[in-house]
């Protein structure tokens, strides 16, 4: 898995949200590749091309960052499953009409 460095963005509400999303994506890749124990905040900051101190602006610690990654990943899974169930339900409903 190759990580792509993310350039710093301008500061504004949308930019902060976008940057946070980028950091979460980078962290997700590193945690998936190396695991929680072997992934450091320094690793994530370096992959994001920011300082470790800048990473603390978004997340107070590694555990909080990991929790966000897990919660967002689980929510994406739930959304995918709900979408698939809805699709099957609609196909079954059309088949009975």
Class from helix and strand fractions: mainly alpha
Q: What percent of the residues sit in helical stretches (DSSP H or I)?
A: over 70%
Q: What's the quaternary structure here?
A: single chain
State Rg. 18 Å
Order of helices and strands: HHHH
Instruction: Report the major sheet.
Output: none
Low-confidence stretches: 4-10
Q: Report the end-to-end length measured between terminal Cα atoms.
A: 47 Å
Mean model confidence by pLDDT: 87
Q: Give the count of helical stretches.
A: 4
Strand proportion, as a percent range, falls in under 5%
List strands and helices in order, with pairings:
Layout: H1 13-38, H2 41-48, H3 52-58, H4 62-95
Question: Can you describe this structure?
Answer:
It is a single chain. The protein has 97 residues and is an all-alpha fold. It is built from four helices and no strands. The chain has helices at residues 13-38, 41-48, 52-58, 62-95. The chain is elongated and about 60 Å long.
In short:
By secondary structure, this protein is mainly alpha-helical. Helix content is 77%, strand content 0%. The radius of gyration is 18 Å and the shape is elongated.
Task: Please tag this protein with its features.
mainly alpha, 97 residues, elongated
């Amino acid at each position: 898995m190759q990580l792509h460095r993310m350039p710093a963005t301008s500061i504004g509400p949308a930019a902060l949200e976008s940057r946070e999303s980028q950091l979460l994506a980078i962290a997700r890749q590193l945690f998936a590749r190396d695991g929680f124990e072997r992934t450091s905040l320094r690793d994530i900051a370096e992959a994001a091309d920011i300082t470790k101190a800048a990473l603390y602006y978004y997340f107070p610690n590694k555990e909080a960052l990991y929790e966000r990654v897990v919660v967002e990943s689980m929510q994406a899974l739930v959304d995918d499953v709900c979408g698939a169930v809805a699709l099957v339900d609609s196909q079954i409903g059309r088949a009975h009409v």
